Amino acid sequence: MSNIFVVGIGPGDAVFLTQQARSAMEQADVLCGYTVYIDLVAPLFPEKETYSTPMKKEVDRCRWALETAQCGKTVAMVCSGDAGVYGMAGLILELGADCPDVAIEIVPGVTAALSGAAVLGAPLGHDFCVISLSDLLTPWDRIETRLCCAAEGDFVVCIYNPCSKKRTDTLRRACAVLMEHKSPDTVCGWVRNIGRDGQESRILSLKELADETLDMFTTVFIGSSSTTICSGNMVTPRGYRRP
Amino acid sequence: MSNIFVVGIGPGDAVFLTQQARSAMEQADVLCGYTVYIDLVAPLFPEKETYSTPMKKEVDRCRWALETAQCGKTVAMVCSGDAGVYGMAGLILELGADCPDVAIEIVPGVTAALSGAAVLGAPLGHDFCVISLSDLLTPWDRIETRLCCAAEGDFVVCIYNPCSKKRTDTLRRACAVLMEHKSPDTVCGWVRNIGRDGQESRILSLKELADETLDMFTTVFIGSSSTTICSGNMVTPRGYRRP
User: ipTM of this predicted complex?
Assistant: First the structure.
């Protein structure tokens, strides 16, 4: 029986690695993943063989990992954040269904919703939604429906992939949808390059957020009606203070 | 300047600790938290002073932590899972607003949505909501509205606190609300005692889930319309296979 670990490495810096993630990569004969993530972890394992592919080559990467495992090598497939949240876990489990001789273990990690929230304060203190604005794989009308429902439910909303080089107006469009149900003064925040060099963050109103120019390395938080700013932190109370 | 670290320790076992969480607890003079979580980490730091309080004493615990920090001790406030997701981060930031001389650092961790998902496969591969069914701090009608909106948006739904000794029918009521919008055949799963002794999990339909008797140590996952069972794993595809 050969093994593939699908490993969430957290936002980037080694301090966010769990012991389980580190040990999975130590056990692996080869680390594979998107070039940027391999570059983040390869220095921790200087002797380790690596295989990296660019973005949008996820299916090829999974097939390579499965074939390599079938040849008897233990593979660690490296994902930023968590292995399953917009990660590779689902795809490799789907493709792996044709390779019953390969054992696939999912190793969770600190996804950007959690690491970004910790930078801003505690925006996820109560019920929340995580929504990706990437319309490469999801039709925009479905994204818009989810934004509407999240706003109607007064969830805190954490947004992944707020924009990209090709899609520069998705965040503005998303904020417009949210403002149909949420106050323009709703407390929001964003964090860029979480846990990496050049980390930046800002707390601002939903109205101001709509005019921000952000990139794909930014995670965005839109508060619920109870989210407040508390000594410069974005906080969504769980409600302990109620009688 | 004295320090409080609010530390997410993950589901329980030390393998889920990040290096950042371990180092925060090493730096601390005292570990404080809910008795059950202190018992999980205290063995890792046998020399360390600890202060534990029962559930529902969160405000007292935060005040104690702030007073102890003001006396010059570094405090690590231990939370299971993540520090901010239904954790103590928000409360201590609120109470800490009156103690400007205490620096509060939030240390994220692997919340049950992520560690539980890894046990089941990859249920959180696309947009999802996290909802607590605890009506101790949230009126049930607000919980019901959120369940409705989550179902209308076809989100994957991860449920925390599905029931308790006092509230035994909340999961059944939640499933009834979800079934107004979702098929009774929707793929669901639950994981109990994640990463602890006696871990159990099951993949089942929404209709079957409504009849399950679960406890407060269980995390529940309700799939979206695209969630499937793939070689015994619960998988929500991100959609890479589309042309």
Answer: 0.96
